[in-house]
């Protein structure tokens, strides 16, 4: 499994892509399930959550790298994105294809239907080898890296505690980790004490095994995680993305509700990943919680206006941040 090395400036952020994907977006005017639908257009983007985060960071001028795995059979589309955006490629190359996800974008309703593949299945030896090589690459980059981002699902066969293993190793070396995953990998990784987590409302409800139908219940749940009442080491930041309701930003000192910015929505795919990128960009600038909430929300809003893992010029993103309203929750 040989990586394609890059001779670019040392990355400040490394995102880990255990389960990258090619996102095939197909536009239809009025999707009719069970019927023949004629497509208006199609677009294929190198994606998966970790790739999306690195892409958005690069658009904002942050040196980023990706470690993880790619299938040799269709790696060229990822390589083209990395080259275009100057993202350092530290991925392991595997035989076969990287998974392909299909997004059906209805131009009439504005809704997107996702058909996501699970990813390649790893035998135990191959899974252990991949995790070992990813850790090796992260340790090699550790001298220059300010943040590690663990984002996305784990493909079949990768141990559920893979993220926990990386968090323990990296944070022992003094590198904070942002975690953005769900289900069993989230629960296992939370036990390792990541510095920051970014679940959405449904992932948080699943983690705590209780309904979270109101804003008050979401705030209470976020505070439970923040104070370690779930039985695991507590993160310092909990950010809960709420889709069209904005996002909650919680530290032990303060809780904020950032409200969405009205924008013309082109695609909702990757908006949460853009928010994760915005969180990292704000932490690199040592911004306050309010400024972080504004910038991360602006990243997400800017992404809504585009298809694929792309942002407009940084000045436009910062201008959007100035329009983000933030409420303090007592």
Tell me the layout of helices and strands:
Elements: E1 13-17, E2 21-28, E3 39-47, H1 49-59, E4 64-71, H2 75-85, E5 88-94, E6 100-106, E7 112-115, H3 124-141, E8 147-151, H4 162-172, E9 177-180, H5 183-190, E10 196-197, H6 201-208, H7 215-226, E11 237-241, E12 247-250, E13 255-258, H8 271-284, H9 289-304, H10 314-321, E14 326-328
Parallel strand pairs: 1-4, 1-8, 2-6, 4-5, 8-9, 9-10, 10-11
Antiparallel strand pairs: 2-3, 6-7, 11-12, 12-13, 13-14
Report what the structure shows.
The chain has 330 residues and is an alpha/beta fold. The chain has helices at residues 49-59, 75-85, 124-141, 162-172, 183-190, 201-208, 215-226, 271-284, 289-304, 314-321, and strands spanning 13-17, 21-28, 39-47, 64-71, 88-94, 100-106, 112-115, 147-151, 177-180, 196-197, 237-241, 247-250, 255-258, 326-328. The strands form 2 sheets. A 10-stranded mixed sheet has the order 5-4-1-8-9-10-11-12-13-14, with helices on both faces. It has a 4-stranded mixed sheet with strand order 3-2-6-7. α3 packs parallel to α4 (162-172). It is globular and about 50 Å long. Residues 1-7 have low confidence and may be disordered.
Features:
single chain; 330 residues; alpha/beta; ten-stranded mixed sheet; four-stranded mixed sheet; 14 strands; globular
Proportion of beta-strand residues: 15-25%
N-to-C SSE string, H for helix and E for strand? EEEHEHEEEHEHEHEHHEEEHHHE
Strand order of the largest sheet: 5-4-1-8-9-10-11-12-13-14
| Backbone shape | globular
Number of domains: 1
User: How far apart are the first and last residues' alpha carbons, in Å?
Assistant: 51 Å
**CATH class annotation:** Alpha Beta
CATH topology: UDP-N-acetylmuramoyl-L-alanine:D-glutamate ligase
Number of strands: 14
Mean pLDDT: 93
CATH superfamily descriptor: Ribokinase
Low-confidence stretches: 1-7
Q: Biggest β-sheet, characterized? A: 10 strands, mixed
Which structural class fits the helix and strand makeup?
Answer: alpha/beta
* Share of helix, binned: 25-40%
Which architecture does the CATH hierarchy give at level 2?
3-Layer(aba) Sandwich
Count, helices: 10
- Rounded to the nearest angstrom, the radius of gyration is 19 Å
């Amino acid at each position: 499994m040989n990586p394609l090395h890059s001779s670019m400036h040392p990355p400040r952020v490394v995102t880990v892509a255990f389960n990258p994907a090619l996102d095939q977006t197909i536009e239809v005017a009025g999707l009719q399930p069970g019927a023949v639908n004629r497509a208006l257009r199609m677009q294929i983007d190198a994606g998966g959550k970790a790739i999306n985060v690195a892409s958005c960071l690069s658009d904002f001028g942050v040196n980023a790298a990706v470690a993880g795995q790619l299938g040799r059979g269709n790696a060229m589309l990822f390589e083209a994105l990395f080259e275009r955006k100057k993202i350092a490629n530290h991925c392991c190359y595997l035989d076969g294809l990287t998974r392909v996800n299909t997004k059906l974008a209805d131009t009439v309703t504005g809704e997107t239907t996702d058909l996501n593949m699970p990813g390649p299945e790893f035998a135990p030896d191959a899974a252990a080898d991949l995790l070992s090589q990813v850790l090796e690459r992260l340790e090699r980059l550790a001298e220059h890296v300010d943040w590690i981002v663990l984002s996305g699902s784990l493909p079949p066969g990768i141990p559920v505690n893979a993220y926990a293993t990386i968090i323990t190793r990296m944070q022992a070396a003094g590198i904070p980790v942002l975690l953005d995953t769900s289900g069993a990998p989230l629960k296992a990784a939370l036990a390792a004490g990541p510095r920051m987590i970014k679940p959405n409302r449904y992932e948080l409800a699943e983690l705590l095994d209780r309904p979270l139908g109101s804003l008050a219940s979401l705030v209470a749940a976020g505070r439970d995680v923040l104070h370690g009442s779930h039985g695991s080491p507590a993160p310092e930041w909990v950010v809960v993305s709420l889709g069209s309701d904005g996002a909650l930003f919680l530290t032990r000192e303060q809780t904020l509700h950032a409200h969405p910015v009205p924008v013309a929505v082109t695609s909702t795919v990757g908006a949460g990943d853009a928010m994760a990128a915005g969180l990292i960009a704000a932490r690199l600038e040592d911004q306050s919680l309010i400024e972080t909430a504004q910038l991360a929300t602006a990243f997400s809003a800017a992404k809504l206006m585009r298809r694929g893992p792309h942002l407009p010029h940084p000045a436009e993103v910062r201008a959007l941040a100035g329009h983000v309203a933030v409420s303090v929750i007592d």
